[in-house]
Each structure stands twice: as structure tokens, then as C-alpha cells.
């Protein structure tokens, strides 16, 4: 598995569905919802089924082999 790609965000918290789109792990909100519903999304190695899960600095989100890391920018 490759290292996660750093995805800078300017405001905390960010919701999982929003992050999936921002990180390019989902095409749009509908795709993000489908991935989450299919239990294909993990946060810090744990399957996450809540699209509204709030992510914080350092969280790693994965869909298959693709991973993105939340990096808070002040």
C-alpha cells in the first residue's frame, strides 16, 4: 500500500463525504455515499459507515489502495 497523499484543508472539522470528494477518492457526493454504504471506506484503518463523520488533522482515509491524509492548514 502506498503512502497517503496529503490533502490540505483550511477549516476543521471536515466531514468524510466532503473529504472523499476533495481528495479525489470519490467523483461526487453520490459516489462518496455509495462507497461509504458499501463499507469500502476506512478511517485510520477502521471501516467507517457515517458520511458525516468529522475528520481532524492527521486522519487517514482509504478507498482501496488509495489513501488521503487530512492536513490542517492555518
Q: What does this molecule look like?
A:
The protein is α+β, with helices and mostly antiparallel strands and 74 residues long. The protein has two helices and seven strands, in the order ββααβββββ. The chain has helices spanning 16-22, 29-37, and strands at 5-9, 14-15, 41-43, 46-47, 54-55, 60-63, 66-72. The strands form two sheets. The chain has a five-stranded mixed β-sheet with strand order 1-7-6-3-4, covered by helices on one side. The radius of gyration is 11 Å and the shape is globular. The mean pLDDT is 94.
Pick out its properties:
about 70 residues, alpha+beta, five-stranded mixed sheet, two-stranded antiparallel ribbon, 2 helices, about 20% helix
Give me the secondary-structure topology.
Layout (H helix, E strand, L loop, with lengths): L4 E5 L4 E2 H7 L6 H9 L3 E3 L2 E2 L6 E2 L4 E4 L2 E7 L2
Low-confidence stretches: none
The number of helical runs is 2
Q: Helices and strands: which structural class?
A: alpha+beta
N- and C-termini, Cα separation: 29 Å
Order of helices and strands: EEHHEEEEE
Overall spatial form: globular
The proportion of residues forming helix, as a percent range, comes to: 10-25%
Radius of gyration: 11 Å
Please state the average pLDDT score.
Answer: 94
Could you describe the largest sheet, including whether it forms a barrel? 5 strands, mixed
**Percentage of β-strand residues:** 25-35%
- Sheet with most strands: strand arrangement: 1-7-6-3-4
Number of strands: 7
